[in-house]
Amino acid sequence: MRIIKNADVRRNEILDAAEELFDLNGFDATTISAIIEKAGIARGTVYYHFKSKEDVLDALIERHCERLLKEADQIAADTSLPVMERLLQTLMAMNGDKGGAPSVITQQMHRPQNALMHQKTHQTMLEAIPPILMRMIEDGIKEGLFHTPYPYESLEMIVAHVNTVFDDYSEKLMGKELLNRIKAFIFNLERIFGAEPGSFDSVAVLFHTGGGADE
To answer: What does the alpha-carbon distance between residue 156 and residue 28 come to, in Å, rounded to a whole number?
Structure first.
């Protein structure tokens, strides 16, 4: 008996197969035929959902962002955690390259030919991240940890800065230059949010430095 699967289930099966092959062989070395074989579906089924391999990658990036944001949103809603711990865990959940090694999705986004895709991802994150983080900033203001008249606007500036300096230029930043950028970032975080010195030192772990800001 032939099993008829929901369209969303089929679509995710294709994406799962593609993601596994992209991670294993790289984007360029993976063909649509390989994805079809891996997913165990008909060629027409793939082209029903996606126009091309590039379209598959676009969908993977969109799904990747949705999952990161969903996980971060769940952590942000956990008011049983102290504000700073909740903030750090939320930020770590938004880091798509857990473990320090760039995923194939991150690698593809940073390729020059995928500049538009990268720009779309930045815009998506710029719109989605501040509302998630705003919960903790508001709680921090209530608890007297933060003092700022412009919490949301400050978050927008911070996300834009991180997207530019620590994402677009991350491969160019090395050693002391990277450490100075991190120190400056933490220094300005404390002043933007009116926090006590040292309040944001734990943020340094997000940049895989292996230590605190004063190291």
So the answer is: 35
| pTM given for the model | 0.75
The predicted-structure confidence for 178-206, as pLDDT tens digits, reads as follows 889 899 999 999 999 999 999 999 998 88
Burial class (CB in 10 A: 0-12, 13-18, 19+), 32: middle
Structural domains in the chain?
1-50 (1.10.10.60), 61-207 (1.10.357.10)
Asked if residue 16 lies in contact with residue 23, where contact means CB atoms within 8 angstroms, the answer is no
In total, the chain counts a number of residues equal to 215
Contact (CB, 8 A) for 52 and 69:
no
DSSP for 138-154?
A: HHHHHTTS---S-HHHH
Q: Using CA atoms in the order 121, 124, 125, 128, what is the torsion angle rounded to 10 degrees?
A: -160
